[in-house]
Amino acid sequence: MRWDPRPLRFGGVSDIAIPTPSHVSADDLGEALAASRTRLATFMIGAGVTHFVAPSFYTRIVPKWMPGDPALHVVWSGIAEIVAGTLVAVPKTRRVGAWMSLVVMVLVYPANIQMALDAGRPKDLEGAMAWVRLPMQIPMWRLALRHAR
């Protein structure tokens, strides 16, 4: 397999230098990028909807140091996630939506930390997942950043 590091052009998006196998076309990469955007949009909208479907899960992980009503934080973060995902899904606003997704994910990260702290030393699968969830946020941030640029 030969690698071709030439810059590629994706439908008006600035040139992106990506080393690609020489047998992969720009159309294939464009489709992969579109599928990745769809996953980001779906993730953000889905996460936002769960704030309204299972609010008690989110209310209990709002950091103790945050002022105000935890339920209100859950509502606003759910709305922000749904809006960000919707913006990612719309071609004209996908960059703004990706930036908003990144900002929202970073702003809710303290809730992930709180969840891990509340779990303490992992004694079961749920406790372990609370800790595993922390580094798993980084690929999501990178995904949002990739689509924001």
**H/E series:** EEEEHHHHHH
Number of strands: 4
Shape: globular
Radius of gyration over C-alpha positions, nearest whole angstrom: 18 Å
Major β-sheet profile: 2 strands, antiparallel
C-alpha termini separation: 29 Å
Mean model confidence by pLDDT: 85
Strand order of the largest sheet: 1-4
Structural class: mainly alpha
Strand content: 5-15%
> Number of helix segments?
6
Query: Which regions are unreliable across 5 or more consecutive residues at pLDDT < 50?
Result: 1-18
Q: What share of residues is helical?
A: 55-70%
Total domains, how many?
1
How are the SSEs ordered, and which strands pair?
Blueprint: E1 3-4, E2 7-10, E3 13-17, E4 20-21, H1 26-53, H2 55-59, H3 70-89, H4 94-107, H5 109-119, H6 125-148
Antiparallel strand pairs: 1-4, 2-3
Helix pairs in contact: 1-3, 1-6, 3-4, 4-6, 5-6
Walkthrough of the structure:
By secondary structure, this protein is mainly alpha-helical. Helices cover 68% and strands 9% of the residues. Helix 1 crosses helix 6. The longest helix is centred in the N-terminal third of the chain and has 28 residues. The two termini are 29 Å apart. The N terminus is likely disordered.
List keywords for this structure.
149 residues, mainly alpha, 6 helices, globular, disordered N terminus
